[in-house]
Amino acid sequence: MALIFIRTAIIFITLLLCMRLMGKSQIGEMQPFEFVITMLIAELACIPMADSSIPLMYGIVSVVTIFILHQVVWLLDLWFKPMKTVICGKPSLVITREGVDSYQLRKNNLDVSDLIESMRVAGYFNLDDVYYGLYEANGSFSALERENKTPTLPVLVIDNGRVDKTNLGIAGIDRKNLDYFLKQCNARPRQVLVMTVDGNGRVYFQKKGKPYSIEHIEVDGKW
To answer: Where are its TM segments located (predicted)?
Structure first.
C-alpha cells in the first residue's frame, strides 16, 4: 500500500508540473491538439499507478515525452502561422447577415439544433439575435449581437427539411396550417433549412441556399 501511495504521489507531482508548464489553456478551453495531449497524459499516468509491476520511470518518461511534444507543437504554431490552421483549425462563420450557413455547419459535423443549443448557452434564443455567429477553433461559440434582441423563446419546427411534430404541437400549429404557410412561402418542407416559431407566431424562415426572412403564422395561444 505504501508503495502504491508513493508511486501515485510521484506521478501526481510530475503531472502537476507538466500541466502548469503547458499553460492556462490546459485548464480552460483547449485546442484540439491540447485535448488529445491531455487525454494521453491521463491514460499514460494511470498505467504505472495501477500496476506496480511496471517501472515508475516508464510513466514519468512517457509524461515528459508528451510535454516535450506539446512544446514542439506550440513552437511550430508560434513560428509558422499556416501550421496553426493545420493543427488547431480555424473559426467557422455559421451565421451571417443572410442567415444560417448550412455548408459551414456540415463542415463541422453540426446541424441547426446544435447551433441553436450553442446560441442558448451563449444567451441568444433567436437565430436573428445576432448579426454574425461563429464557432472558434476550440469549439466555443462567439457572436456579434444585434442591438435589440427578441425577448421570446422559439421552438425549432423544421430542421434541414425535417418537420418536428413534437415542436409543431408545442407551437400550437397543425400540419394543415403549416402546409398552408409553406405554400404561401412557395416552399416544401424538404426545401427548408430552418424554421422556428415563438409564442407570438413570429417565424424565422430560411430556405436552403436562400437568405432568411421573418414571417408570421397563427398559433394556438402563447407559451
So the answer is: 6-23, 32-50, 56-76
State the Cα–Cα distance between residues 220 and 203, nearest whole angstrom. 14
Q: Are 133 and 94 in contact, with CB atoms under 8 Å apart?
A: yes
- Give the Cα separation of 163 and 33 in Å (integer): 38
Contact (Cβ atoms closer than 8 angstroms) between residue 158 and residue 195 = yes
pLDDT tens digits along 114-160: 999 999 999 999 999 999 999 987 778 999 999 888 889 999 999 99
What are the pLDDT digits (tens) for 2-28? 665 565 556 656 655 665 565 544 444
pLDDT at 108: 83
As a whole number of angstroms, the distance between CA 39 and CA 66 comes to 11
Tell me which of 13 and 175 has the higher pLDDT: 175
CA neighbours within 13 Å on the CB side: how many for 188?
1
Strands 99-100 and 130-135: unpaired
Which three three-digit cell numbers place residue 42?
491521463
**Residue 221 Rama label (left phi>0; alpha psi -120 to 50; beta):** left
